[in-house]
Amino acid sequence: MRFFLDTAHVEDIRKANDLGVICGVTTNPSLIAKEGLDFNEVIKEITSIVDGPISGEVKPTTLDFEGMMKEAREIAAIHPNMVVKIPMTEEGLKACHQCAKEGIKTNVTLIFSANQALLAARAGATYVSPFIGRLDDISEDGLDLIRTISEMFAINDIKAQIICASVRNPIHVMQCALAGADIATVPYSVIQTMIKHPLTDQGIAKFQADYKKVFG
Ligand code: E4P
C-alpha cells in the first residue's frame, strides 16, 4: 500500500514529501476552502512539490455532466499529473466515462458501497475512493467495505486502484493495508502519529543519558 497526503496545506505537503513517504496528494472542496486560497494556484504549487498523482475535485457547484467535463478538462490541463476527482453520481459516472475516453485520469469520490465502486471502475475510473471514517462515524464498518471492494476487484480483474479515504488514525492505516487497499490518503497528523512510539522516545532518552554519563 502506498500513501497520498489528503490536504491542500502546502507546508504539510512539503514536510511529508521530504520524508519520502508519500507519492501523491488528494484534495477536496472542503480542504481547498479551509486554506482559503485560489484552487489553480494551490494545485499548481502542489504539482511543483510532489511528483505523483494530484487529485483536484470539480467544484461542488458544478455537478452536471457538461459543467464537470469543462472543469475536468481545465483541471487536467494544469499538469500531466492531475487526476480529476468526480463525485459518485449518475452525472459523475457519465463524466468519468467521457474522461476515460479523452485520456483524463479520474478519482471517483464519496464512495460508500461496493456497488458504487464497481460502477465507477466500469465507467473507467483510474481510482475509486471509499470513505472509511465517515462510515465508522455512522456505525458502519468502513474497513469491511475496503475488504469487499478489494476482493471484488481481484475476482473480476479490475484495474482501478482503491484509495482508502477519510482515514482518521493509524489503526485505519494498518487495517487498510491488510484489507488490500492500493493507497491510503491520510492527513499529515496521521503520519505524525504513525511515526511516534513512546518506547522510541524512551530509547533515545536512555541512549542520551548513558552516553552523557561516560562521554559528557
Ligand atoms: C478523500 O479524498 C477525502 O478528501 C477525504 O479523505 C475526506 O476525509 P474526511 O471524511 O476526514 O473529511
CATH topology: TIM Barrel
Radius of gyration: 19 Å
Number of strands: 8
**Helix percent band:** 55-70%
Query: Given the C-alpha coordinates, what overall shape results?
Result: globular
CATH architecture: Alpha-Beta Barrel
Name given to the CATH homologous superfamily: Aldolase class I
Q: Give the H and E element order.
A: EHEHHEHEHEHEHHEHEHH
Largest beta sheet: strand ordering: 1-2-3-4-5-6-7-8
Query: Structurally, how many domains make up the residues?
Result: 1
* Beta-strand content: 15-25%
Number of helices: 11
Structural class by helix and strand composition: alpha/beta
Give the overall pLDDT as a whole number: 98
Function: Transaldolase is important for the balance of metabolites in the pentose-phosphate pathway.
Family: Belongs to the transaldolase family. Type 3A subfamily. Belongs to the transaldolase family. Type 3B subfamily.
Keywords: Cytoplasm, Pentose shunt, Schiff base, Transferase
GO molecular function, one term: transaldolase activity
Question: Could you explain how this protein is built, in words?
Answer:
One of its GO terms (cellular component) is cytoplasm. GO terms for molecular function: fructose 6-phosphate aldolase activity; transaldolase activity. Pathway: Carbohydrate degradation; pentose phosphate pathway; D-glyceraldehyde 3-phosphate and beta-D-fructose 6-phosphate from D-ribose 5-phosphate and D-xylulose 5-phosphate (non-oxidative stage): step 2/3. Belongs to the transaldolase family. Type 3A subfamily. InterPro entries: Aldolase_TIM, TAL/FSA, Transaldolase_3B, Transaldolase_3B/F6P_aldolase, Transaldolase_AS, TSA/FSA_arc/bac. This protein is α/β, with parallel strands linked by helices and 216 residues long. It has one domain (2-215): Aldolase class I (TIM Barrel), CATH 3.20.20. Helices cover 56% and strands 16% of the residues. It has 11 helices and 8 strands. The chain has an 8-stranded parallel barrel with strand order 1-2-3-4-5-6-7-8, surrounded by 7 helices. The mean pLDDT is 98. The structure holds erythose-4-phosphate. Erythose-4-phosphate (E4P) binds next to helix 7.
